[in-house]
Amino acid sequence: MNERLAIVGSGAIACGLAATAAHHGPVLLLARSESSAERARATVEKTLERLGAEIDPDHVQIVTDSAALAGATFVVEAVVEDHDVKAGLLAELGAIVEPDAVLASTTSSLSVARLAQASGRPERFVGLHVFNPVTRMRLVELAFPEEASERTRARALELCETFEKTPVVVPDIPGFVVNRLLFPYLFSAVRLLEQTGMDAAGIDTCMKLGAGHPMGPLALLDLVGLDVARAIGETIGEPVPARIGELVAAGALGRKSGRGFHDYRQ
User: Fold this and answer.
1) Which end is more exposed in the chain, N or C (fewer Cβ atoms within 10 Å of the end residue's Cβ)?
2) Annotated catalytic residue 149
3) Catalytic one of 141, 238, 257, 262
């Protein structure tokens, strides 16, 4: 890996990216606290073990001081899907990293142009939308602001190819391609559940066996996280079913909380 890669965040996307990058060289991961750093370390080690990868876990250096990112040449922000949070962090990172470093965001639905402006370096910025689980999903949606240089575009494509991913350049529109097409379908499954009283398992089984999908729509929403799904729906202008709001209010966010449309606590 030619780039000195750093990832900011400690959730599923950040840790998945770190585990993926560790196959190709050292990577730095910035967590916001010592407790987050410990959880991230455990997640990365578990992911590498599950993959049967003979990778030294020390390839992933986890830090809590943002000053440690100063020498990175490609920094990927992977924190909560909130414009203000991301914009503030990107502005901070833009002031830390070296002038030629590229900043990227894993946003799945926010305006890349606005985030690029917040970073202070729109000519060296890219929306780099990876999919969960990162170690298995091949697609990366790349969305560039108009100001992005040709060198920035080439470096983003090269990084994806290094990670054995398939990059597709997509327009900077809410939801890009996948979420713009996917979430109307996912939410229609929730409305069907609300209208018919069918259980989640029945709907998911129908779509897996009848449409050849690897995962049913309600299980997929649980994997995405119902709070994240609600935020994406609001961003792309897709009405969010009431049932999702009810589950979020009850703390049932999907897999990460142990229950959502399905129960994962057994």
Assistant:
1) C
2) no
3) 141
Q: Report pLDDT digits (tens) over 92-110.
A: 999 999 999 999 999 998 9
Q: Cα-flanking dihedrals φ and ψ of residue 145, to 5°?
A: -70, 160
- Per-residue pLDDT of 178-208, as tens digits, reads 999 999 999 999 999 999 999 999 999 999 9
CB contact set of 209 (below 8 Å; sequence gap of 6+): none
From start to end of the chain, where are the E strands? 5-8, 27-30, 60-63, 74-77, 102-105, 125-130, 139-143, 166-169
Catalytic residue among 105, 179, 257, 262: 179
| 141 catalytic per annotation | yes
> Is 23 assigned a catalytic role?
no
What was the pLDDT predicted at 105? 98
φ/ψ of 103, rounded to 5, equals -105, 140
pTM for this prediction: 0.90
Catalytic, 129? Answer yes
Catalytic residue among 81, 129, 238, 257: 129
